[in-house]
Design brief:
- It is a single chain.
- This protein is mainly beta.
- It contains one helix and seven strands, in the order E-E-E-E-E-E-H-E.
- A six-stranded antiparallel barrel has the order 1-2-6-5-4-7.
- A hairpin with a 5-residue loop joins strand 4 and strand 5.
- The longest helix has 12 residues.
């Protein structure tokens, strides 16, 4: 079974970003949501026949970097979703309506973020204050397979 390695480049803040989310006795968790502005790079697919989630090594397998390659955060839980947009088309005399692909977006969401560089939150907030998403970040997620 091979590792799965996913690269998300040119991520900009989108949706909801937790600045702080604290409950007594709980681990501090921050949920972050980004729009991915570059095609997803699948460097290696999680491989090996039938996928078994219990064969994934647990740990900090996601890493968030700034544009200069500096590690900003480790991420234990992450999710990426593709949202395709289609246009309906119905050919003359055909009762079936077809979906014609037009575009897509990729949304990256993660929680259990362990901040390694306190400047990350400042970069994101400063970017939003300017009214333009200057905080372009890169994320690499790796699913380590048992050997």
């Amino acid at each position: 079974m091979a590792d799965g390695r996913y690269i998300f480049r040119d991520c900009v803040p989108d949706g909801v970003i937790d600045i702080v989310n604290v409950r007594t006795g709980d681990i501090v968790q921050r949920a972050w949501s980004f729009r991915v502005n570059a095609p997803v790079e699948l460097q290696s697919a999680l491989d090996g026949g039938t996928f078994q989630p219990n064969h994934i090594i647990r740990g900090y397998d996601g890493e968030l970097y700034d544009g200069d390659g500096n590690l900003l955060a480790e991420v234990n839980t992450f999710q990426a979703q593709i949202n395709p947009t289609n246009t309906d088309y119905q050919a003359a005399g055909n009762k079936q309506v077809w979906a014609i692909p037009q575009s897509y977006t990729v949304t990256l969401t993660f929680t259990e973020t362990v901040i390694k560089d306190a400047k990350i939150l400042k970069k994101v907030l400063d970017s939003l204050a300017k009214g333009a998403p200057d905080a372009r970040l890169n994320f690499m997620g790796v699913l380590h397979a048992h050997t």
